[in-house]
Design brief:
Blueprint (H helix, E strand, L loop, with lengths): L12 E6 L2 E6 L23 E7 L14 E2 L17 E5 L12 H8 L10 H9 L8 E4 L9 E3 L2 E2 L6 H9 L15 H7 L6 H9 L3 H22 L26 H20 L5 E6 L15 H7 L10 H22 L2 E2 L2 E2 L4 E7 L14 E4 L10 E4 L6 H10 L24
Helix pairs in contact: 3-7, 6-7, 7-9
């Protein structure tokens, strides 16, 4: 595989042997795969669109997240400030509501992602879309959770959850490990230590060198940037396998009770940061076109390292600051979640494809469960989308739709991605009214 013609296909991967197992490293979209503007393949076929969902429990504080102006040219609210660098690629939706039963910690995400508030959540939007756009990729979808759990809001049907992967190391092994694993095997036990210590990139070094010789300057620079980013992710994972350096002042405390370290907010953000890089690389390499991220579920258990009180407890028990007019600790947790979301958007926007980025051909849908977590309200629930879905969606717009069902966003997303659906949702959330002003 060292001839120039060997590297002309978008499906080309670099292959090698690592730890006795075959590994493959996919390639990003290089200029040689694309048309003159980098917006389609060289043969004229459009670039595949990608879709993802991102969930954060416990809402946003009313008045702190909504843009003050409607339409284009809006400014992000206080809680969403971390997203400001990407405002021109983000649509914000305010005033939306989850109609139905008394509010709880499930109705918001149920309506956002399934159009229904039933106890048995039906097939969710990521699975619906994945069954259409994800059938030609290695993974139909990837689901991850950042709080150490396997909790997922992705459903293939009532009571059929697509469990989330809580470990970035395990996700790395799935993406860059052996090319085939028996799907009927009772257990899946990859050996990530071998792969991370030696690096998947080292297994394909000869093919990397041969490929670089046959590329133009722009593609060489892009591939070097891509491989550098991938190796940085490998180095982050490698740290988890190394014994830390000794510290003279360190003593071993009493063994704490059983607890997932994933609920510490700093750990959840670090986990998410690595997931963001892996997801971006997986999509850039055509390994998947659909993903789902759970950053602290409904009734979030996330907490500060120095406190036993969870985000959830703070929403119920923290007093409203009389000068600020809101719960400051709750707002801090909400800002941390949006900060994590901004890192995923940055990872997608940081992978260049022609004259655009991976984010430009993706569509990311964000939702939470409450408009005001303290009272479990299901009106004015924050939602947004990021990315232009390959030019199918206009961006940089604030849509205010007071009282409309949250399912309108889901219907809009599906129609933009080519899903043949005219009506979506159930009972009070059923809608045949997409947000048509966003269609390009």
């Amino acid at each position: 595989m060292t001839s120039k013609t060997s590297f002309n296909s978008r499906r080309t991967v670099l292959r090698g042997i690592l730890g006795g197992a075959s590994v493959s490293v996919g390639l990003p979209l290089l200029d040689r795969f694309l048309d003159g503007k980098g917006r389609a393949f060289a043969n004229g076929a459009p670039l595949p669109v990608c879709f993802g969902t991102w969930f954060q429990g416990l809402g946003g504080a009313p008045g702190l997240w909504e843009p003050k102006t409607v339409g284009a040219g809006y400014e992000m609210g206080q809680l969403f400030q971390a997203l400001s660098p990407f405002r021109h690629k983000i649509n914000v939706f305010s005033g939306l509501k989850a109609h139905g039963r008394a509010p709880d910690h499930t109705i918001g995400q149920a309506v956002a992602f399934a159009g229904s508030y039933e106890d048995t959540i039906p097939k969710t939007i990521d699975t619906i879309i994945g069954d259409v756009i994800g059938t030609q990729s290695r993974f139909r979808s990837l689901e991850v959770a950042c709080d150490g759990s396997t909790e997922s809001f992705s459903r293939r049907g009532p009571n059929i959850a697509n469990a989330s992967e809580p470990s970035p190391l395990a996700l790395y092994a799935r993406i860059f490990g052996p090319e085939f694993t028996d799907p009927n095997a009772a257990e899946f036990k990859p050996d990530p230590e071998v792969m991370v210590r030696r690096s998947a990139l080292s297994a394909v070094s000869e093919q990397r060198a041969a490929l670089l010789k046959n590329l133009g300057a722009a593609d060489r620079a892009r591939l070097d940037e891509y491989f550098t980013s991938l190796r940085e992710t490998e180095k982050q994972l490698e740290l988890q396998l190394q014994k830390p350096a000794p510290l003279a002042a360190c003593t071993i405390p009493s063994k704490p009770g059983e607890e997932s370290t994933g609920v510490i907010i700093d750990q959840a953000r670090a986990t998410h940061r690595t997931f963001a890089s892996l997801i971006a690389h997986a999509m850039a390499c055509g390994q998947t076109q659909v993903f789902s991220v759970n950053f602290g579920g409904g009734g979030s258990r996330l907490r500060k390292a120095e406190s036993a009180e969870s985000f959830h407890i703070h929403t119920h028990e923290e007093a409203t600051d009389p000068k600020l007019g809101y719960q400051p600790t709750v707002a801090w947790f909400q800002e941390q979640a949006i900060g994590a979301l901004s890192e995923l958007i940055a990872a997608l926007d940081g992978i260049r494809e022609g004259d655009g980025t991976l984010l430009d051909r993706a569509l990311l849908m964000y939702s939470t469960d409450h408009g005001y977590a303290r009272l479990h309200t299901s009106d004015n629930v924050p939602m947004l989308t990021a990315g232009g879905a390959g030019g199918r969606i206009k961006t940089g717009i604030h849509v205010h739709a007071p009282g409309d069902t949250m399912a309108r966003v889901g219907l809009t997303v599906q129609q933009a991605l080519g899903i043949p659906v005219h009506t979506w949702g159930k009972d009070g959330n059923e809608t045949s009214k997409p947000i048509s002003e966003l269609f390009a």
